[in-house]
Design a protein that fits this description.
The chain is of the alpha/beta class. 22% of the residues lie in helices and 30% in strands. The chain has a single domain, classed as Rossmann fold. The mean pLDDT is 87.
């Protein structure tokens, strides 16, 4: 993420689903807003980063309006959005908040080769198709495969089924 920020001259970042804020400690964002559905996560993030004036946190807003940011990120969220209406609203909010770059870290289809998900809180979707159909103004420019892909090792499951997908805003008509 730091490389994407540096290479693109990103100054403002919004993260949808900031979670517990642990990953954020490794990020170098000039100006950051983290939003999450859980008040407890937002409070934890505020406490963890209370001495950093470049970081702010908020409970997710019903209207999905946060202003404009150079980059919007969504890490490990999409496959937890099992209801279609929640997925639609989320994707629209993420794309509406960014002016230049959107980064998703998610599965993109069925990484389990047709196996039923082991959790009722996980639904794998081909979200890049959603982007093509609903937000053609965003173009996928890079897919960065996970260094530790999901695999079964006997009874153990290792790695992640998510990869990084970087979209850039397509130039508008001149």
């Amino acid at each position: 993420m730091n490389e994407i920020v540096s290479q693109n001259g990103i100054q403002t970042v919004i993260e949808f689903g900031c979670g517990d804020g642990n990953q954020l400690r490794h990020m170098r964002y000039p100006n950051y807003l983290g939003v999450d559905v859980a008040q407890s996560a937002v409070e934890r993030c505020r406490e963890l980063h209370k001495d950093d004036p470049t970081k702010r946190f908020s409970v997710i807003r019903a209207d999905g309006e946060y202003g404009q940011f150079d980059m919007a990120i969504s890490l490990d969220v999409i496959y937890h959005l099992v209801e279609d209406s929640v997925f639609e609203s989320y994707m629209r909010s993420v794309c509406a908040a960014a002016t230049r770059v959107v980064v998703f870290y998610s599965s993109n289809g069925d990484p389990l080769n047709g196996a039923v998900s082991w959790s009722p809180h996980v639904r794998h979707r081909r979200f890049t198709d959603w982007m093509d159909w609903n937000r053609p103004d965003w173009k996928l420019v890079t897919m960065i495969p996970n260094r530790y892909p999901f695999r079964h090792e006997g009874e153990l499951e290792r790695g992640s089924f998510a990869d990084f997908y970087v979209f850039e805003k397509a130039p508008g008509p001149t």
